[in-house]
Amino acid sequence: MAMNVQTATDSSDRIWEQEILPALERYIRIPNKSPAFDPDWVRSGHMEAAVQLVADWCRAQAQHLPGLVLEVVRLKDEKGRERTPVIYMEVPGTKGDDTVLLYGHLDKQPEMTGWREGLTPWTPVREGDKLYGRGGADDGYSAFASLTAIRLLREQGLPHARCVVLIEACEESGSYDLPAYIEALAPRIGKPSLVVCLDSGCANYEQLWMTTSLRGMVAGNLRVDVLTEGVHSGDASGIVPSSFRVLRQVLSRVEEEGTGKVLVEALHTQIPEARRDQARAAAKVLGEEVFTKFPWVPGIRPMSDDGAELVLNRTWRPALSVTGVDGMPALNSAGNVLRPFTTVKLSMRIPPRVDPKAAMEALTQALVKDPPYGATVTFEGEKSSTGWDAPPLASWLSNAVESASDTYFGRPAMAMGEGGTIPFMGMLGERFPEAQFLITGLLGPGSNAHGPNEFLHIPTGKKLTCCVASVIADHFKR
């Protein structure tokens, strides 16, 4: 029995409009920043509020999903401190114990500056097809869409495998709590043959996009000290080397400033030819959309004129970003002082297949060895995450994804790597090497996760929900 397309489309539209979007608006209002950005998250209570909101909505789905089991699982670390909670759900399958695992997260990035007039991170605003607010697309919708996809199957009496839904609250901090939960829940999760992750992106809103790889990351704070306290710049400049200039010299060891090329060989990997082919295909479909999706200032241009090279730059090559700075006063309080130190926060994206521990060691060594002028140069590694490269796609999943995209988007499915990090994928890839993966999401052009003016593209959310239902149905029939 095939899924009735019009019934599924109408049902997804109705559930999104009447149930999911109102819940997402309440969710956006909660400033449940990830623990890395709210160390006092237990006391502040925002994470708990978000967990309860999502859990309550999901529990209410039991009327549509008989047998639904939901538990908010809470573990403590080795020192007795609360770990961020996990929402664990099970929906029984039609027969057998084959399992589909669906994943998402509910913690958020911090506010970020630059929201346009009329928008704030914690106030939901709907404008046409877009719902603005922090965390809606990254990744608050995932729990709602996951259960709704299963609900679409149940409404039509279509069989499906047992489904486990796992929603964590630590992803934006590197998922450091998640391994403990995966270990504790392993007997209940079972051995999934299909993993669906709704925390990724789409290169346009016109077709279904599968993520085939993710970059890892190493991050930390680079500090250069030259004095014990600030001194008059007229007295010291020309004698005392500027901490900022020393910092520039040190960064030039790891990044070629003229091109952005990362110079540390240990941070590179051989790019598989299949991934190069995917990059060329994606660039051909997207054209200038590869780069026009970003909010460029007038006159600036991308780092290459070759669209395929731009795709590979953001998916299979290392890249450095300076994401924060300390030791520099605001402009209105900057006197004529040679500052004693400069600190910057570095985020180094690393390709799939690069070991983050080895990458951290290589990066640290390159930064701190033989400091210019004998300055004190330190690099404090904060976090690291493993990248991920999808296993070969089974023919049934390839056909299922193609069929879903053609049916609900009216265009062929596309595949491409993503530049971000989802630590959970690396963990699952190790634990379930035989599983197939459907990694997808709503983070498309302009959606700007982590930045100002983040939005969720509502029509894509509705279509994506139908696509997930279709793939789960085909998984059962394989």
Can you put this structure into words, describing what you see?
The protein starts with a helix and ends with a helix. The strands form five sheets. The chain has a six-stranded mixed sheet with strand order 1-2-6-3-7-17, sandwiched between helices. A four-stranded antiparallel sheet has the order 11-13-9-14. A three-stranded antiparallel sheet has the order 4-5-18. The chain has helices at 5-28, 41-44, 46-60, 136-155, 178-189, 233-236, 243-251, 273-286, 289-292, 307-313, 356-368, 395-408, 423-431, 458-477; strands at residues 69-73, 86-91, 99-105, 125-127, 130-132, 162-168, 194-197, 209-214, 216-225, 231-232, 319-326, 337-338, 341-350, 376-385, 388-389, 414-418, 436-439, 455-457. The longest helix has 24 residues, at 5-28. Helices cover 35% and strands 20% of the residues. It folds into two domains: 5-214 and 388-477; 219-269 and 316-385. β4 (125-127) and β5 form a beta hairpin. The protein is an alpha+beta fold and 478 residues long.
Observed structural traits:
peptidase activity, globular, 4-stranded antiparallel β-sheet, metal ion binding, 18 strands, alpha+beta, 478 residues
Treating each run of at least 4 consecutive H or I residues as one helix, how many helices?
Answer: 14
**What Rg is obtained from the alpha carbons, in whole angstroms?**
23 Å
Terminal-residue CA separation: 13 Å
**DSSP strand (E) fraction?**
15-25%
Write down the domain tally: 2
Gross morphology is globular
Question: How many E strands?
Answer: 18
Spatial strand sequence of the major β-sheet: 1-2-6-3-7-17
Helix percent reads 25-40%
**What is the multimeric organization of the chains shown?**
single chain
Biggest sheet layout: 6 strands, mixed
Structural class from helices and strands?
Answer: alpha+beta
Low-confidence stretches: none
Q: What do the pLDDT scores average to?
A: 96
Protein name: Succinyl-diaminopimelate desuccinylase
Domain Peptidase M20 dimerisation: 213-369
GO molecular function, one term: peptidase activity
Keywords: Hydrolase, Metal-binding, Protease
